[in-house]
Amino acid sequence: MRALLMGLAFISQVALAALELPVDTESEIFGLGIAATEAEAERAALSSVALKLSANIQVEQKENLKSVDGQISSSFEELVNISSGKLVFPAYRVIAHSEGLDGNKQVVISLGKQQLLDFYDHYLLMEYQQLSTTLVGLNNFKPIDAIPFLLDTHHKLVANERILTVIAGLTPDGVSPLLQKQHISLYQQTQALLHRGGWQVVSDSRSHALAEMLSQSISENKLLVQSETNYQFVLSTREQSAKKANQFRTKWNIQIELRQQGQLESIKSWKIALISEPEITHEATVDSLAVQLAEKLGSNILFTLLGNVENEN
Fold first, then answer.
1. For position 53, what pLDDT does the model report?
2. What is the pLDDT of residue 64?
3. 3-class DSSP string for the chain
4. 75, 84, 96, 203: least CB-packed within 10 angstroms?
5. 8 A C-beta contact, residue 32 and residue 45
6. Which of residues 132 and 101 earns the better pLDDT score?
7. Dihedral over alpha carbons 161, 163, 165, 166 (to 10 degrees)
8. What is the average pLDDT score of the chain?
9. How far apart are alpha carbons 273 and 240 in whole angstroms?
10. Tens digits of per-residue pLDDT, 265-311?
């Protein structure tokens, strides 16, 4: 009985031992993930691979893979397109899994470099073919009607630049001339169509923070202020402030209208209501509302407002 108990204790200790990340080879890349569930651990492992790939680093580790129970899983997961840090992945292989002393699941995954190259090459060819078809159709659109699709296309091309960087880091041959040519051509076509419209910001005094953020977003998206057809974002903010128990609270009711220059009728409009937390001064509530507004609209405000092709008025 004592021998049996000792054996069970040994097995328990072994099963709970930590996995270690294997050395990347010329043909494979490995990732280690730790999380509460195996599914989350696999995603964490993909994130670790994504960091290697996006940094364009051939990571070398000194540790060896130790599957402490002597078993290594070699079964492939179902073919899925899974996003980790906005980087798309093909099927991956779970080669080891365990449970740590803290109860968290540990997973080691493997991805073949040639598998990644083939997947990304096919992915970009299909993506560029679809984007090319979209751009041809947008030639006959008015700038205001085309802008959601053009911003979406621009957003996808920027995301694909990361994949091109990954491809360049996976092979000494670098990115194929065909993919480079397609990417540059689509980028130039997108910019030419974007530049058919000019985008300006007009605001009242209380909308200064939003006006600055929106103007910066227009600049970052490489849009023009003046062009063949010009549009204006007209911003207005109604502010209400109250003081209670020596603390201030402020409410903003913001309206954003998109108009063609010289027209009073809105093409699109958005309404945003924000309430601050209690603060010692009115200025502090205004600062906190500006932070709330930035968080709500995201880092690319123009894309938030217009870049969603399913966005409604």
1. 82
2. 31
3. CHHHHHHHHHHHHHHCCCCCCCCCCCCEEEEEEEECCHHHHHHHHHHHHHHHHHCCCCCCCCCCCCCCCCCCCCCECCCCCEEECCEEECCCEEEEEEECCCCCEEEEEEEEHHHHHHHHHHHHHHHHHHHHHHHHHHCCCCHHHHHHHHHHHHHHHHHHHHHHHHHHHHCCCCCCHHHHHHHHHHHHHHHHHHCCEEEEEEECHHHHHHHHHHHHHHHHCCCECCCCEEEEEEEEEEEEEEEECCEEEEEEEEEEEEEECCCCCCCEEEEEEEECCCECCHHHHHHHHHHHHHHHHCCCHHHHHHHCCCCCC
4. 75
5. yes
6. 132
7. 170
8. 80
9. 11
10. 888 899 999 999 999 999 999 999 999 999 999 888 888 888 765 44
Structure tokens at 298: 């995201």
Spatial neighbors of 60 by CB under 8 A, at least 6 apart, are 23, 24
**The two structure tokens encoding residue 111:** 């991805």
Return the CATH architecture of domain 197-307. Answer: 2-Layer Sandwich (3.30)
How far apart are the C-alpha atoms of 153 and 186, rounded to whole Å? 9
Cα–Cα distances (Å) from 269 to 64, 236, 272, in that order, read 58, 11, 10
As given in the structure block, the two tokens for residue 234 are: 């007209």
Q: How far is CA 238 from CA 211, 272, 278, 301, in A?
A: 15, 11, 19, 20
User: Domain ranges in the chain?
Assistant: 2-112, 197-307
Are the CB atoms for 249 and 278 separated by under 8 Å? yes
180-186 CB contacts, 8 Å cutoff, 24+ apart: 182/124, 182/125, 182/128, 182/132, 183/124, 183/128, 183/157, 186/128, 186/131, 186/132, 186/135, 186/153, 186/157
